Amino acid sequence: MATVLVVEDNPANMTLATFLLKSAGYAVLSAVDAEAGLALARTEQPDLVLMDIQLPGMDGLQATAVLKGDAATRDIPVIALTALAMKGDEERIRAAGCDGYIAKPLAYREFLATIAARLPKATV
Predict the structure, then answer these.
(1) How far apart are CA 120 and CA 53, in angstroms?
(2) What is the pLDDT of residues 34-93, one digit of tens each?
(3) What domains, with CATH codes, occur in the chain?
(4) Which residue among 11, 71, 79, 94 is buried most deeply as judged by most CB within 10 Å?
(5) What is the pLDDT at residue 121?
(6) What is the mean pLDDT of residues 115-121?
(7) Angstrom distance (rounded) from CA 84 to CA 80
(8) 25 near 123, Cβ under 8 Å?
């Protein structure tokens, strides 16, 4: 079963992402800030990280740079979860090291398709 780490500070968004991922057969780890997410990524080695960009303290782009700069976590794909959907935001997010981009509010089909493109679907 593939494991997805969700780093998200908004409880409603965390609940929705966790529900969708579990329904699709993924194991889910969660963190409410970048520091906790980085610690979980290092210890648990998830198959994919969903990273909110606007986090308290260290933002998601800084956290992605830390993940991509660490030999232990650099190969874990990071998909940005963000409400930043203005022209140029996706390019800036990808330039920061994110491997994909999902705009909020989450459209569940697009959300799961983006994740499935990076991970094999788990068998339930």
Answers:
(1) 25
(2) 999 999 999 999 999 999 999 999 999 999 999 999 999 999 999 999 887 777 888 889
(3) 3-118 (3.40.50.2300)
(4) 79
(5) 55
(6) 82
(7) 10
(8) yes
